[in-house]
Amino acid sequence: MSGLVLNALYDIGQFSNVTPYFLLGYGRASVDTKYDFPNRGRAEIDGSSEIIQAGFGADIFFDERTTFDVKYRFRRAGLNAGGLDADIDAHILERGIRYAF
If 47 and its partner were Cys, which of 18, 23, 60, 81 is the partner (CB 3.0–4.6 Å)? Predict the structure, then answer.
């Protein structure tokens, strides 16, 4: 699955060196599904669907240039093509470090 999502983030407020936030997103996905059926062959279904996601996270500031980021997102994409109606759900936990030049 690949896609493009537009997100909106809402900063709750800054508490000491931590800024928690919520996020909501909406976009489109391209889904390529393949499945091998035992003794029956292979099925391939391609389609596109909408993506929705919601989550929360926090930016933790170490100094003026360095920020640690941790976030959780729930993402759902659907596929309705070729007689297949399915939801593809993902729970995503991300962490990262940003350095501003």
Answer: 81
